[in-house]
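Here is a tokenized protein:
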Amino acid sequence: MCTAVSFLTRDHYFGRNLDLEYSYEESVTITPRNYPFRFRNGTELSTHYALIGMAYVYENTPLYYEATNEKGLSMAGLNFPGYAVYHPAAPGKENIASFELLSWLLGQCADLSEVREKLKNLQITDEAFSPQLPTSTLHWMVADRTGSLVLESVAEGLKIHENPVGILTNSPPFDYQMCNLRNYMALTREFPENRFAPGLELTPYSRGMGAMGLPGDLSSASRFVKAVFTRMNSVCGSSESESISQFFHILSSVEQQRGCVHMGEGKYEFTIYSCCCNTDRGIYYYTTYENSQITGVDMHKENLDGTELVSYPLVTGQQILMQN
């Protein structure tokens, strides 16, 4: 399971936790403008916006988990089991396989207004990349500095949700997650008032009691509530250091520690990596489970007019600064 965040200070930041029980040997991958995207419907983008993000590169194809393009538009795919339904290709539709959707949108769209136009005729198809890589059940968050959308392909078709909280987790669907926030509307970052029994002299005995009842478990519904509360109440300076630090703190509020979610057969789901991209500057930052030091890759230090993928393997070993 995963959590994605869109966050605005002076610049716009976008990123996510990737929570799984295994790694696909993903890498920070830059796709330059002239690397061709060839889609299963027979169309091709021979030139497009450059992308940076985390991808599993398979048969020289970048299968992005999340990415940002050079215009500042970002997108992430998150697991959506039990609800995601992809449909057969339909005449008259823009038929795009689920694994192609991120590259198709980010390659062509500069902002959310262009995304909305592209989505009007979109059909997300059920074609798998290969027998070795079957279809993943996903929904997506797309964001720029003006806001964000959630895309969910379900049995009824493609649903597009405006996302006022800038957070996405996993199942159940986004409209349920937003409705569920009403269960926590009384929570506050302030000291609570005694509304339980006005005739009793009840006073707080600890700081933070205004948020008592805020979920702390690792379910997707609880992570959604916790991440929304943390993001919407965040107080952050506008510098790059302050912004990325706060972003990683938001993600760490819902990270998963190995051992707390048992998947059976000795496997445990945990936060494999966390990432934060400054979408205005094209700098991708990340940490991994074993390496809490922030590592960065700047897409603009590469040749964005090139034709070959650029990949940086993750720095996974713990980096420790000794002071004596």
Observations:
- The longest strand covers residues 12-20.
- The helical segments are 101-108, 112-119, 174-180, 220-232, 240-252.
- The chain has a mean pLDDT of 96.
- The first helix runs from residue 101 to 108.
